[in-house]
Design goal:
19 helices, about 650 residues, D-Maltodextrin-Binding Protein, domain 2, five-stranded antiparallel β-sheet, 5 domains, about 25% strand, Beta-Lactamase, alpha+beta, single chain
């Protein structure tokens, strides 16, 4: 029994020696080491890595850098804040890091405030509550950690304070809906826990409520306060503190500057303003270009219409409510002598005479839609007689109650041409009558002259009948000459030649025949402005009218859509050629050889058969050529050819 007691005693002695040896081995070399106490669950200040065999965090890296500055080996002691504080009091550790300045006042340590700081912020869960500042929390349930210096302030604001043992416990309570908000003493530390727990509904509201500096509690027994302070200053000077801040906290993560806080909005606003400015400048520039373009277009349009009005061959006038002429073109000034004391007064007299009174009554006759047409004669019965066909309509003028626009055409020459045409028709009828009379008289006269000539041959020279027979023969010749003069009455005995524009004569003839051309499609596109020949205007007008009337007569039996008149003119090898084509019944080959013979007509009782005969004679008088090409039921083409003269004077 005594032997066993000795063995037990020896065992405990050996065990105590082993324990002391282990303790001696675990005690660091305090001269060459810096023993730092850190809490292992205070991310991002200090926390265990994924394998849980080492420490990471801002406080850990800062301690390593400070140990390097002091030339000492770093030793970390892990425990909670309360136990670390006891170790610091007993002198087992040199300092404590990873702490915030909450109830750190004691008589065995000094506080070293680092340039690094964490941010107090408001955290909420979900979308129900919106708190942008501290005053918004009044009257709400708020989670705070035990011992937080913010508890009295929240109570004073009327908040219901829910105390949590740790940041993790506070976040769990927030997610469980036990409070409306959580005022975290370190939003950075809460951020790491939120990421690790994957709390997706927790959001940071507003900016930082308070910047809480990270502190280091240095034991007074160690005597390291001044050396650690110097090391911290050197780390800040060489930029290590800033690098650690950027690494673990991010640069101004929760206390951003105005630029960093609203940078996106400012840039978007600036970009939007720039876009608006550019768009405005572009729009203004485009608008100015458009205004200039429209202005130039309006100027060109105004100039174009002014030139059209000014160069129009028709008379254009604008009359005000008093009958005064306020606008006139060149044709009006030339025809009415408006610059002097010519037709302007007579024009008003003629207009008022038409309505037995004044211009106001005349205006009442003008329809609201359309124009009023009148033919008036100015200076009638004098050498300066002027026949005008006028169209009047109301013009919208802001400067006066009403204004009358007058467009007139000088019909004096047209009426003269009408008279000439009537005279030509009279001559044609007279020629027909003369030819008929001559034909009927020439036959018996020829018989009488033949018998008288036979009788003279058989009558002796001394016969008393011979003088009577000679008288009969002489008066027969006289009768033949008389009938020959009757045949020549259709054509003038003497012709005067001048330079004439054959194309203009054709256009005037078309205008004269306008009533008959309403149901006919006229194509005069290939008619040039000038075809200058030497000739007599009256004869050429009769020639063109005869050909046009014949063409229209040949299309009488055709349907309206099948009636077409094509007029072409050209200069070829020194000759002026004019072609008049129709879509009439055409001419057979047999009749084509007879159409220029006098009294030959295919119109029956409607024609005399002298039109083409006289036309050919007029062409021959002008040393020209006339030719016809035709096909039955396909129309005919009359071709005229004359020698060309110089255009000057045409």
């Amino acid at each position: 029994m005594r032997r066993w007691s000795v063995f037990v005693l020896l065992f405990f002695v050996l065990l105590a020696g082993v324990v002391r040896t282990g303790e001696a081995a675990s005690v660091p070399d305090r001269e060459n080491s810096l023993v730092i106490g850190v809490p292992p669950h205070s991310a991002p200040l200090s926390f265990l890595n994924e394998k849980r065999d080492g420490l990471l965090g801002l406080a850990v890296d800062l301690s390593v850098k400070m140990a390097e500055e002091l030339g000492k080996k770093i030793v970390f002691v892990q425990s909670n804040a309360r136990k670390l504080e006891q170790k610091l009091q007993r002198g087992e550790i040199d300092a404590m890091v990873g702490l915030l300045p909450v109830n750190l006042k004691n008589d065995f340590s000094d506080v070293l405030v680092t340039p690094l700081a964490l941010n107090r912020a408001i955290l909420v869960a979900g979308q129900e509550h919106q708190f942008s500042m501290e005053s918004d929390l009044a009257g709400h349930r708020v989670i705070l950690q035990r011992g937080d210096a913010y508890i009295p302030r929240m109570l004073d604001m009327g908040c219901t304070v829910v105390q949590a043992d740790s940041i993790t416990n506070a976040l769990n309570r927030l997610m469980a809906g036990q409070a409306d908000a959580y005022v975290a003493s370190s939003v950075e530390m809460a951020f790491y826990i939120v990421q690790s727990k994957e709390y997706r509904n927790i959001r940071v509201m507003g900016g930082s409520l308070e910047r809480i500096p990270m502190v280091m509690m240095v034991g007074r027994r160690s005597g390291l306060l001044e050396r650690l302070t110097s090391a911290l200053v050197r780390l800040e000077e060489n930029g290590e503190v800033e690098r650690l801040r950027s690494k673990w906290l991010g640069r101004s993560l929760y206390v951003p500057s105005l630029w960093e806080l609203y940078r996106y909005h400012i840039l978007c606003s600036v970009a939007l303003l720039a876009c608006i400015l550019i768009a405005s400048v572009t729009w203004i520039y485009a608008l100015k270009r458009q205004v200039r373009k429209v202005s130039r277009r309006l100027i060109r349009s105004e100039r174009k219409y002014r030139d059209l009005i000014e160069e129009s061959p028709d008379i254009i006038l604008l009359l005000d409510e008093n009958g005064r002429i306020t606008l006139s073109n060149r044709a009006a000034r030339s025809a009415l002598h408006i610059a002097g004391s010519g037709y302007s007064a007579m024009l008003m007299e003629a207009l008022c005479t038409e309505v037995n009174g004044c211009l106001e009554r005349f205006v009442q006759l003008i329809p609201r839609q359309g124009a009023l047409r009148r033919e008036i004669t100015l200076a009638a019965g004098t050498d300066e007689e002027l026949v005008l066909e006028v169209n009047l309509f109301m013009a919208d003028m802001e400067s006066s109650p009403y204004a009358v626009c007058l467009i007139g055409r000088d019909m004096t020459e047209r009426r003269r041409l009408d008279a000439q045409v009537m005279e030509m028709e009279r001559l044609a009828v007279l020629g027909k009558l003369a030819a008929g009379v001559a034909h009927e008289i020439n036959n018996p006269i020829g018989i009488v002259m033949a018998h008288a000539e036979i009788a003279l041959e058989d009558c002796p020279e001394d016969s008393p009948l011979r003088p009577m027979l000679k008288a009969i023969y002489r008066n027969g010749e006289r009768a033949v000459n008389t009938t020959r003069r009757l045949l020549n009455m259709a054509l003038p005995s003497s012709v005067e030649y001048e330079t004439q524009n054959l194309a203009q004569i054709v256009r005037e003839a078309l205008f004269f025949l306008k009533p008959r051309l309403r149901a006919v499609k006229v194509d005069a596109v290939m008619l040039p402005a000038e075809l200058c020949i030497r000739g007599n205007r009256i004869l050429l007008e009769q020639l063109v009218l005869n050909l046009l009337i014949n063409a229209l007569d040949s299309m009488e039996g055709r349907a309206e859509q099948d009636r077409a008149l094509v007029i072409e003119g050209r200069c070829r090898e020194g000759r002026a050629v004019l072609d008049i084509s129709d879509t009439g019944s055409g001419i057979s080959e047999e009749n084509r050889k007879k159409i220029f013979d006098p009294f030959f007509s295919t119109k029956g009782n409607k024609g005399f058969g002298l039109g083409l005969y006289i036309s050919r004679h007029i062409v021959e008088l002008h040393e020209g050529d006339i030719d016809v090409s035709s096909e039955l039921d396909a129309g005919s083409t009359m071709s005229l050819s004359f020698a060309v003269v110089q255009k000057s004077g045409c």
